[in-house]
Write a structure and sequence with these properties.
394 residues; alpha+beta; 5-stranded mixed β-sheet; 41% helix; 18% strand
């Protein structure tokens, strides 16, 4: 299992290289910014370029895992289909070929013969990545490969990726928008129980060198299996938790939360009561979950049903390894925190009954992501108390 996690980290970095290349290489960047206006879209393109970038990242992950772990590629599920039909009626399947030249030739068909862009993209797709993580190198955990399923969101927060804002200022470490909100999400779950086991979040645009304007990425990982819980923030967490006085102070302050800009007004009003000034709007489901992983906020809450299994699985596995999780919001509100019952964790193996299309895999009850069960219980108690009077008023 640690071998699989090591490989997932490596392919996430390869995917991050593709995402960065599409913004930093001129031939690819020109295609990317063309997608801002639908009217400018070349009708001969088999796909708009932002979708192609998504699909390429997904295919790189799939095929890399299949090559290293035969059979696993067929258990990788994601948001994107790799089949395109252009306006000329041609059906093109995007997949990695065995050589850089063959991949460039295929991409050239998708990009209407744009040789420069096709070759630039093929080069970065076939570029190898050497990545080592000392903590993972020393970890040996065996798990049957046949119980594993994988959810992938190749480029989460595509709008921010296309828009490409690099000068957004953070609010107490939380970026409301911009390239920092773009993430690559890979979550591994148990096909039998639906529980998340491993997660990788790669943030391709974590920080920018203001002299060269080059971006540097950052990755986070976690593993939670059979009593073993380990994650990439282990060292920092253990140092922080050893200071009891600081922990007590943490519990006495109001909870902080990151929310979607599209969150409904009732929830926003309640959160302003519960959290005071500690409510931070931000883009991207993956990024908002990452804010909880990083400890920038206590909670990520979203009441709508427009996040999906590929949005939450990676962060869920990391948070489980940290002693937290991601629970169904509506079910949490239906239970009293004082009862001490197990929280209704999101599961990843079952389709939603009666749904179709992407809604098959929607997180129907909304979600609440958290690092600390104690903080979550405090937050839920306040939330339920404040929701009651507000519902009465409306």
């Amino acid at each position: 299992m640690s071998d699989i996690l090591r490989e997932l980290l490596r392919v996430s970095e390869k995917a991050a290289n593709i995402a960065r290349a599409c913004r930093q290489q001129e031939a690819l960047f020109q295609l990317l910014i063309q997608e801002k206006k639908d009217a400018e879209k070349n009708k001969k393109f088999a796909a708009d370029f932002k979708t192609l970038a998504d699909v390429l990242v997904q295919e790189v992950i799939k095929q890399s895992m299949e090559n290293k772990f035969p059979g696993l590629g067929k258990k990788i599920f994601g948001e994107e289909s790799n089949e395109f039909t252009n306006d000329l009626g041609e059906k093109i399947t995007v997949e990695l070929r065995s050589t850089e030249e063959e991949t460039a030739e295929l991409l050239s068909r998708v990009l209407d013969g744009n040789k420069l862009a096709s070759e630039a993209l093929a080069k970065v797709v076939h570029q190898d990545v050497d990545l080592t993580d000392p903590t993972l190198e020393s970890l040996e955990i065996k798990v049957p490969q046949d119980i594993l399923g994988i959810w992938v969101d190749p480029i989460d927060s595509t709008y921010q990726y296309i828009k490409g804002s690099a000068d957004v200022k953070s609010n107490q470490g939380v970026f409301p928008s911009g390239l920092q909100c773009v993430t690559i999400l890979i979550g591994v779950y148990d096909l039998q129980t639906g529980m998340p086991l491993m997660g990788v979040i790669n943030q391709p645009f974590a920080s920018q060198n203001l002299t060269t304007l080059r971006w540097k990425g950052q990755y986070y990982w976690g593993l939670s299996y059979m009593g073993t819980n380990i994650h990439s923030l282990q060292l920092a967490t253990s140092k922080g938790e050893s200071q009891t006085a600081n922990s007590d102070m943490e519990f006495s302050r109001p909870c902080s939360a990151v929310i979607s800009t599209s969150e409904n007004e009732t929830i926003k009003a309640v959160l302003s009561r519960v959290c005071g000034g500690g409510v931070f709007p931000a883009a991207g489901a993956g990024y908002k979950s990452l804010c909880v992983v990083q400890g920038l906020v206590d909670i990520y809450i979203f009441s709508e049903d427009t996040t999906y299994k590929w949005d939450s699985c990676a962060a869920h596995a990391i948070l489980r390894a940290m002693g937290g999780g991601i629970a169904d919001m509506k079910e949490c509100l239906a239970r009293s925190p004082e009862t001490g019952l197990d929280l209704p964790q999101l599961l990843y193996h079952l389709e939603n009954k009666g749904a179709s299309g992407v809604d098959l895999w929607a997180n129907k009850g909304g979600l609440i992501a958290y690092r600390s069960r104690h903080r979550l219980d405090t937050f839920l108690s306040c939330l339920i108390q404040n929701l009651g009077p507000l519902k009465t008023q409306t």
